[in-house]
Design a protein that fits this description.
globular, 8 helices, seven-stranded mixed beta sheet, two-stranded parallel ribbon
Length: 263
Amino acid sequence: MTPPLSLHIVTEEDPFYIPVFFREFFAGLPRDRVVVTGVDITPPLNQTRPLALARKLYAFYGPVDFPRLALGYALAKAKDALLPAAWTGTVRRLAARHGVPSRVVADVNAPSYVRALRALAPDLLVSVAASQIFRTELLSVPRLDAINVHTGPLPQYRGMLPVFWQMYDGRASIGVTIHTMTERIDVGEILLRRDVALGGVQSLDAAIRTMKRQGAQALLELLARYADGAVSRTAMDAAGGAYRSFPRREHAVAFRRRGYQLL
């Protein structure tokens, strides 16, 4: 009998969107064919200090939406503290509910972390919005591939917050690309690609939630291909794309002028 495919996931701390992905992913995971060895959580947007993170988010969301975001964050933290047995609104709570170990990791490229991960011998290492660049030693850990779930068509929308930039550019659909990883951001072989129609959605918040669910479904589909030995690979022309940085206040203002909302 073929042993189940094993994968280890690296993601980031986020009480708003990442749990949407994992709720969908764990609900559809075929436990007889796939084993998750753990979920490791990096700092949000790679910001280790709360004040630095708040400044970065305020610069984007502005004086109206940032307080709404902060209130949502405070409510999530309160539920996490007061309802630990009933609430599954964080990645760690969701992982625990499904019997998957999780931990917070400050540096995924630290030699001690790489050694510990190598000892688990995963078939796949999966990045789901991980906030740090994976270096060569870390990328060499999995038996098969290190892969990334990216909510944008590649190589056209490499980089940060790709759902925002696709809406900003007036696209009628949002892409999901799962690709093998290299030390270059969002570059590698394309393993799976799908497009999802926006369908008149005007809210970035709603679009990101939809795409997290779509990303989880895409990953489940790809895992089935790995388990069946049916993965196809397409070379990516990295020269044909562009890297998008985290949007600034002026981009958020222009986004609203196009008729969209952030929250």
